[in-house]
Amino acid sequence: MDEFTHYNESGRARMVDISEKQETSRSATAQSIVHLSDELYEAIEKQQLKKGDPLHTAQLAGIMGAKKTSDIIPMCHPIALQGTDLEFAYQQAEEGWELHIRATVKCKGNTGVEMEALTAATTAALTFYDMCKAVDKGMIIKETKLLRKTGGKSGDYQAG
Q1: CA gap 88, 25 in Å, rounded
Q2: Strand, helix or coil at 104?
Q3: Are 37 and 136 in contact (CB under 8 A)?
Q4: What is the pTM of this model?
Q5: Starting from the edge strand earliest in sequence, which strands make up the sheet with 157-158, in order?
Q6: Is 136 known to be catalytic?
Q7: What would the pLDDT profile of 79-134 be if each residue is shown by its tens digit?
Q8: Cβ(22)–Cβ(153) below 8 Å
């Protein structure tokens, strides 16, 4: 099991030792896309949702998700995040609409924040669904992916 970084000599799970890694500025941006109906988009635009503004709540949930990543992803290190922001943009689709959620997370540390950005985007998408399901239970959380990351030993990454 030597080739697997998250297993010890006995073949049991372990959190990787990052104590010798260099501290650098790191950032990551991830995206989730939610497909929604015309009816839901119109209800949001007219502020007719009974639960209130879904983007406001999704914003807060995304930030909380980033902060709690190490609590729900077993091998993630707790990280002192220094910045978390989410952006939301509606785009008309062939049928209905898409909500593009982008989460950017930053820290200065010795491990990356890709998982925190992915968790923030996903948590925001799930919260958006929860806020809007009374109008459109057929929403689809279509795609979650890492868009870019900076810093660390492996260098920068930009999705193609």
Answers
A1: 25
A2: strand
A3: yes
A4: 0.92
A5: 83-92, 97-109, 24-36, 140-150, 157-158
A6: no
A7: 999 999 999 999 999 999 999 999 999 999 999 999 999 999 999 999 999 999 99
A8: yes
| Secondary structure letter of residue 61 according to DSSP | H
The one-letter code for the residue type at 91 is: Q
- Name the DSSP letter for residue 1: -
Whose structure tokens read 């609590």?
A: 71
Q: What is the C-alpha to C-alpha distance for residues 101 and 160, in angstroms, rounded to an integer?
A: 18
Work out the angle at residue 81's Cα, subtended by the Cα atoms of residues 83 and 118, and round it to the nearest 5 degrees: 80
- Residue where the block lists tokens 């502020």: 47
CA-to-CA dists, residue 53 to 47, 97, 144, angstroms: 7, 17, 22
Choice among 53, 130, 136, 156 that is catalytic: 130
Structure tokens, 29: 């941006």
Q: Cβ distance 96 to 38 under 8 Å?
A: yes
Q: Which residues contact 149 (CB under 8 A, 6 or more apart)?
A: 26, 27, 28, 29, 112, 113, 114, 117, 156, 157
